[in-house]
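TA notes, week 10

Several of you asked for a full example with nothing omitted. So below is the full record: structure tokens for the whole chain, then the designed sequence directly under it. When grading your own attempts, check the secondary structure regions first.
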């Protein structure tokens, strides 16, 4: 497994992604199977920093390494919590968030889903509280 830091050329966010190998990354990229976690754009590039970052991980002190792992674990725990307590609305997130806000639509659960940085900014300007959370794709579910 290899971890690349990918960056979206459209909305400028970067995120980490795991690949079986660098060849797999190239293959997925060629087939346009990579897209941005934020806006769904296919204009994804590997950041230049990535290879250094990967080879650097084994060389950083063990305590740091543990820290990284525990952050990863925390994110996963957080995701578990969100999945359990919030309703997944996927790309309808902004629509659902607005309908809750403006129509007083009652929901038993909060919602989570995907939105672009721009959409989040708009929601915030409209006074709709939205949190950005780090998300690690889990292939097991
Ligand atoms: Zn994007």
């Amino acid at each position: 497994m290899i971890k690349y830091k990918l960056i979206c050329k459209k909305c400028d966010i970067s995120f980490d992604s795991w690949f079986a190998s660098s060849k797999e990354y190239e293959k997925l990229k060629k087939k346009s199977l990579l897209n941005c976690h934020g806006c769904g754009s296919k204009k994804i590039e590997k950041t230049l920093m990535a290879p250094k970052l990967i080879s650097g991980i084994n060389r950083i002190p063990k305590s740091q390494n543990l820290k990284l792992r525990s952050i990863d674990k925390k994110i996963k725990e957080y995701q578990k919590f969100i999945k359990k307590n919030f309703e997944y609305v996927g790309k309808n997130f902004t629509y659902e968030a607005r309908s809750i806000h403006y129509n007083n639509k009652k929901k038993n659960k909060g919602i989570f889903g995907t939105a672009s940085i721009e959409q989040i900014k708009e929601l915030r300007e409209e006074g709709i509280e939205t949190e950005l959370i780090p998300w690690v794709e889990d292939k097991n579910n």
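The first strand starts at residue 2 and ends at 8. Use that as a sanity check on your answer.
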